[in-house]
Design goal:
The structure is a homodimer. Chain A has about 280 residues and is of the alpha/beta class. Chain A is about 40% helix and about 15% strand. In chain A, the strands form three sheets. In chain A, strands 1-11-8-7-5-6 form a six-stranded parallel β-sheet. A three-stranded parallel β-sheet of chain A has the order 3-2-4, sandwiched between helices. Chains A, B: Keywords: Amino-acid biosynthesis, Histidine biosynthesis, Hydrolase, Methionine biosynthesis, Multifunctional enzyme, NADP, One-carbon metabolism, Oxidoreductase, Purine biosynthesis.
C-alpha cells in the first residue's frame, strides 16, 4: 500500500511554523499582516472558500477583512474598490474570489491588483517573474503540491514528473516550477490533445493529476512506486472525488495524496504564506 | 536524407509578407513603424547583431534608430534613455542589445521598458501574458522555431515535442508555447539535470536543441523520422556549429534545420513582426 501524503497534516505543520513567523513579524513591525478578501455575489461555494481563508488567516495571527459586494456590482465599482485597497497601507494582500459575475471582465480586475499585494500570484507580472526564476509570490496550489513532495521526502531532482492538465492556475505553473531549481525535475506536460496518454504517465516518477475528471487516472496508468499527487476536487454523487481512482492507484503507487485532505488544505496555507510575504515586502 | 528546414528561405518569405503589411500600415497611418536599438559598449558581436537588425528593419520598410552609449554608461543614464524612448511617440519598439556592461543591472533595465514597446518580449508582464495565453508579443526565437515547423508542414498537435534546454530566452518559452493552442504538443522539457537523456530524446517526434553545446545531439539520440530544430549557434574552430551533429543526425531525422541558415535568420524576422505589432498597438 502506498504511503499517504496527507496535505492536511503537512498544512497543520506549516501553519504552526507560519504562526511563529507571523508573531515575529508583528513584534518587529508596527503592523499585523492583513488580507482583504473581495467577494462579489452569492455563490455558496465561494462563500465557504472565503470564510475558510479568513478563518485560516486569523488562526495564524493575521487579520482579514471581507468586502462583500452584490451580484449586480459593475466592473467600475469593483475596480474602484480594488484601487482603494491597492492604496490602503494597512492592507497587504488582496484576494479576489473567483468566479466573478458575467458582467465583469475577470482578467481586467485581476490585472488591476497591485502586483505587490497579489497574493494569488495571478497578475501577469507575477507570472512572468515566476517563469524568469525571480518569483515575488509562488502560486498557491502549485506551491502547495511542491511542499507536499518536499515534506514527504520525495526527491524531484532529475526525476521524471508528468503533469496532467495545463490550466493557468495549476498545471501550467506547476510544470514550470517543477523544472526549475531547486526542484530540477524533467517535466512532461500532458493535456486533452496528448496521444497515448497512459504510455506517458507510466513513465512518471511523479504524477500530478490536475484535469478535473473524477477517477480519470487508473492503476494501469501509474508506474509501480510512483508518487501521485491528486489536485482534482470533483463534486460527484459519491462526494468529493479526486482525479485519480484512489483505491486502485494506491495499490500501485509508492505514495499518493488523498481527496479530501490532500492538496486542498495546502492551497489555503500557501495563501497565508504569501500574505506574510506581502506584508514583509511592503512593511520592511 | 532528412528534409532541410531552411530558416533562411522561410525568413525570406516571411519578410516579403511583412513588407506588404508594413506598406499597408504606412498607407493607413500617419507613421512608419520605428525600432530604437540601444547598444552600450563596444562588443563586436553585439555590433553586428544590431547592424543586422537595423538593416532588416529598413529592408521591410520600417525605420530604425541607433542609440550608442559608451561602455562606462551608468545605470541611471541608461534608465534615462529608456524613459525617453518610452515616451517618444515616434518610437514603437525598443531593443536593448544584450549583454550590458557589468555595472548595469540588466533585469532592472529590461523591466523599465514600456511593455507595449518591448519587442523582445522580455518584460515579466509580457512573459506572464504569454503564459496566460494572451500574448502581447511572442518571444522572437521561439516564435521563429514555431514558424519553421508550421511552414515546413510539420504537425505539432498531439505530437511529443522534447525541448533540450530551459533558458529564459529559448527553451522555457518555447516549451510553453508548444504545449498551448494552436500547437498543442505534449512537451517534455529537459535540462542539465535530466537523467537518461537519450531515452527521453528518442521519444521525440519533434526535438528542439537549445543547450549551447556544439554537436551535443548525436544520431543515436534521435528517433528515425523526427523533426530536429537546432537553436545552437556555437562559435568553434570549425566555424559556427549547432547543438546537433548535423551530418550524422540528418541521416536519421525526417527533417532538420541547419546552422547557419536555420533559426538565426528567423529570430531577426520575428523581431520585425513584433515591431509592426507594436506600431499597430500604439498607433491604431
Amino acid at each position: 500500500m502506498a504511503q499517504v501524503i496527507s496535505g492536511k497534516e503537512i498544512a497543520k505543520q506549516l501553519k504552526s511554523e507560519l504562526a511563529e513567523q507571523v508573531a515575529v513579524f508583528i513584534q518587529n513591525n508596527a503592523s499585523v499582516p492583513r488580507l482583504a478578501a473581495v467577494l462579489v455575489g452569492e455563490d455558496p461555494a465561494s462563500d465557504v472558500y472565503v470564510r475558510n481563508k479568513r478563518k485560516a488567516c486569523e488562526a495564524v495571527g493575521m487579520e482579514s477583512d471581507l468586502h462583500r459586494l452584490p451580484a449586480e456590482t459593475t466592473q467600475d465599482e469593483l475596480l474602484t474598490l480594488v484601487a482603494k485597497l491597492n492604496k490602503d497601507d494597512a492592507v497587504h494582500g488582496i484576494l479576489i474570489q473567483l468566479p466573478l459575475p458575467p458582467q465583469i471582465d475577470s482578467d481586467r480586475v485581476l490585472r488591476a491588483v497591485n502586483p505587490a499585494k497579489d497574493v494569488d500570484a495571478f497578475h501577469p507580472e507575477n507570472v512572468g517573474l515566476l517563469v524568469q526564476g525571480q518569483p515575488r509570490f509562488l502560486p498557491c496550489t502549485p506551491h502547495g503540491v511542491l511542499q507536499m513532495l518536499k515534506r514527504s521526502g520525495i526527491e524531484t531532482e532529475g526525476q521524471h514528473a508528468v503533469v496532467l492538465g495545463r490550466s493557468h492556475i495549476v498545471g501550467r505553473p506547476l510544470s514550470i516550477m517543477l523544472s526549475q531549481p531547486p526542484y530540477n525535475a524533467t517535466v512532461t506536460l500532458c493535456h486533452s490533445r496528448t496521444k497515448d496518454l497512459a504510455e506517458v504517465t507510466k513513465q512518471a516518477d511523479i504524477l500530478i493529476a490536475a484535469i478535473g475528471k473524477p477517477k480519470f487516472v487508473t492503476a494501469d496508468m501509474v508506474k509501480p512506486g510512483a508518487a501521485v499527487i491528486d489536485v482534482g476536487t470533483n463534486r460527484t454523487d459519491e462526494g468529493l472525488v479526486g482525479d485519480a481512482d484512489y483505491a486502485a492507484v494506491s495499490e500501485v503507487a509508492g505514495a499518493i495524496s488523498p481527496v479530501p485532505g490532500g492538496v486542498g488544505p495546502m492551497t489555503i496555507t500557501m495563501l497565508l504564506f504569501n500574505t506574510l510575504e506581502a506584508a514583509r515586502g511592503l512593511e520592511t
